[in-house]
Structure formats: C-alpha cells, structure tokens
Amino acid sequence: MTPRRVRDIEYLLVPGNQRKTTDIVIERDGTVVVRPPAKYTPEQVDAVVDSKRLWIYRNLAEWKDLNASAVAREWVNGETFLYLGGAYRLALVSGQDQPLKLKDGRFCLSREVIEHGGTDAARKAFEQFYVDKGQQRFESRALFFAPKVGVDIADVKVKDMGYRWASCGRSGILNFHWKCMMAPPKIIDYITVHELCHFHHRNHTDAFWNEVDKVMPDWRERKEWLRKRGASLDL
Ligand SMILES: [Zn+2]
Question: CB-based burial of residue 38 (10 Å sphere; 0-12 exposed, 13-18 middle, 19+ buried)?
Fold first, then answer.
C-alpha cells in the first residue's frame, strides 16, 4: 500500500469502513492509518485528513514522546526486566537446567546462554519465557472471559505480533503478543476482553466499546495505561 500525503502528513488509506465517519488512528509504529466510509473518493479522504491535521500533529508528537522512553537494554547482572507488571533483576547463573527461570524474585539466566549465543540468545530465552507463560495465562483468561462476553474461542496463540498487541481471526483464534506478559494482570485482562469483544464487532465503534464496558466497566483506565506505558513493554 502506498502512503498518501496531505501537506506534511503521510497516511495509509485503508478501505472498507462501513460507518458514516472516518476513523483515524496512530498505530504503534507511528503510522497514520485512515479508514474512511467506503464511498469516499481519495480526494474526499484527503480533505478529511487535512481538517483533522491539528489532532494528527498533536498525537504524532505524543507518540514520539512515548517512544523516546523505549528501553535500551543491557544484558548484565542487575539489569531489570518486567513480568506481570513487576520489575525483576537479572542474575547470570551457572549450571542451571533451563536457559531462564524466575526464581526467588530474580530472572536467573544461564551464563552459558550469553557465552555461547550472545545477546541474541539471551533475548530469545526471554521471548520463549514470555511465550510459555503467556500461553498459559491467555488461555485461562480467555476461557474465563469468553462466556461473560458470550463468545466461543477455538484457540489461543502467543507469538511476535510486530507492533500489534493482539488480533482475532474469523475462525475463533486469538493471537497475543508475548510482550503483553510484561504488563500487569489488569492490562492483560483488558487486552483479552478487547479481543473477545471483536468477535461481536470487528471495529472500534461505540457498539464495540459498549460490549467491553459490560464486562469491564473500568476499561478506559486500562486502555489509557496501555497507550501511555505500552512503549516501555519491550526487551
Ligand atoms: Zn481492537
């Protein structure tokens, strides 16, 4: 998809919005995505984007601020890593049976992992830890919330989702990013409920948020937490 440009705003035009209004979002990678009503011409979309440019500038500036706080990671003793909202210090240990364990309030990383594979291997060990823990937690939380939302799920997968936190497929499969496991349980629950509600509405209309609200009345705070702190959930 080639981006369109209005003044100095570059945006991606995504067709297929069944609504009467244009949906403009700043994605986690900083891309401006615009979903206009299906019958709009590209020129009409340009005009809408132009009329919303102050909002777009403000949100892009905020996105830059939030991402300036992204993590620069060192793989040394004492460095902290997040898990379920808590910060745990890293300890390099010898003779451990697994590459990485959370034990006695510390992330114990086998020294051999770094010695043989360097920081790439260390990163992989953490990713695998979050994938394994995430698989258990998201399965159990999705099974807990699915009847409350009134939907059936087919499967839960935890993997690298790029700049997305989660997605839901049409066949009842939920996908979650392993990075979600760094967030507090309340936020993980919000991400779960959010995706489950997409089985009812594949958009972010009022009807969608109304479904979220039925199950999780304080969703706004949780959504705001994720918007503000999401960039810090990284390796
Ligand atoms: Zn959504």
Answer: exposed
CA of 39 to the centre of ligand 1 (A): 23
Q: Does 153 share its domain with 93? A: yes
User: Would residue 161 count as lying in a domain?
Assistant: yes
Range of the domain at 63: 4-68
In the chain, the percentage of residues whose pLDDT exceeds 90 is 68
Q: Report pLDDT digits (tens) over 66-80.
A: 776 666 677 888 889
92 and 41, same structural domain? Answer: no
Residue 78 Cα, ligand 1 centroid: separation in angstroms? 36
Q: Measured in angstroms, how far is the CA atom of residue 90 from the centroid of ligand 1?
A: 34
Provide the number of structural domains found in the chain: 2
Q: What percent of the chain is modeled with pLDDT above 70?
A: 97
DSSP label at residue 5: E
Q: What is the pTM of this model?
A: 0.76
Distance CA 56, CA 79 (A): 36
Pairwise CA distance, residues 51 & 54, whole Å: 8
Between the CA of 23 and the centroid of ligand 1 the distance, in Å, is 13
